[in-house]
């Protein structure tokens, strides 16, 4: 992801092609359980008719789902849904589909465990590389979290941009390859945790994010690590509370 792409990050995924729409519908159906593990998908002719697509579009969609680990084609059997241990949860679409169909507290706990492995380390590296201009941009996103002049969605998008930029500033090329995963993880968790009760938490959220910026500005990697860890742990707590609230209706 390029630096300029971060400024245009928005919630949601725009499906621009027929191929993408087919992948989306089948992927959601698998993750949501319409096609459970071990089930054989409808045949090509039935799927072509269902989605009103050509054989070539359907085959490309199936290749994409195969690469994500969701399906496998067997001769004389058909295309079968694979066991969940084969699903690539680091794939941004697969992770997003889980959030779309609903996640469990255990799923969120494990997701945040991964965030804690990645983001505090990225922040520590960013503290040794970030420029004053980088810090100004981070501060701008942090301050937007407390703005009453923008919508809840825009505040969530500011939080998303803050964390993606902080990760990118680490300069680690392996993080570059995981930004899609990080985006989906953040987007899903933020949509759960930053519900309309954000107004009551706004001050603390801004302070917590500004503490990260200040640590990065001081070139203090350990403080950047610790403050980022605190923000992620706070996000875990509010995401779990959000799931509980959803369950209660």
TrEMBL record:
Listed Gene3D superfamilies: GntR ligand-binding domain-like, Winged helix-like DNA-binding domain superfamily/Winged helix DNA-binding domain
Pfam families assigned to the protein according to its UniProt record, in alphabetical order: FCD (PF07729), GntR (PF00392)
GO MF, one example: DNA-binding transcription factor activity
Sorted UniProt keywords: DNA-binding, Transcription, Transcription regulation
Residue span(s) of domain HTH gntR-type: 16-84
Protein name: FadR family transcriptional regulator
Lineage, broadest ranks: Bacteria, Pseudomonadati, Pseudomonadota, Alphaproteobacteria, Hyphomicrobiales
């Amino acid at each position: 992801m390029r630096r300029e792409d971060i400024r245009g990050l928005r919630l949601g995924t725009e499906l621009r092609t027929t191929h993408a729409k087919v992948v989306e519908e089948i992927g959601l159906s698998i993750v949501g359980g319409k096609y459970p593990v071990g089930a054989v998908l409808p045949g090509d002719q039935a799927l072509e008719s269902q989605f009103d697509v050509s054989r070539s579009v359907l085959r490309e969609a199936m290749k994409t789902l195969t690469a994500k680990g969701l399906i496998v084609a067997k001769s004389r059997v058909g295309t079968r849904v694979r066991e969940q241990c084969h699903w690539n949860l680091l794939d941004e679409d697969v992770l997003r589909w889980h959030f779309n169909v609903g996640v469990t507290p255990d799923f969120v706990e494990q997701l945040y465990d991964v965030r804690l492995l990645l983001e505090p380390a990225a922040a520590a590296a960013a503290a040794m590389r970030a420029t004053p201009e980088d810090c100004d941009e981070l501060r701008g996103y942090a301050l937007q979290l407390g703005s009453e002049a923008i919508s809840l969605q825009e505040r969530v998008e500011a939080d998303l941009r803050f964390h993606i930029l902080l990760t990118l500033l680490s300069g680690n090329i392996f993080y570059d390859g995981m930004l899609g995963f990080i985006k989906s993880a953040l987007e899903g968790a933020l949509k759960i945790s930053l519900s309309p009760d954000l107004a009551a938490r706004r001050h603390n959220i801004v302070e917590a994010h500004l503490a990260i910026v200040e640590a990065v500005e001081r070139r203090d990697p350990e403080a950047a690590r610790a403050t980022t860890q605190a923000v992620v742990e706070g996000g875990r707590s509010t995401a779990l509370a959000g799931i509980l609230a959803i369950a209660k209706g």
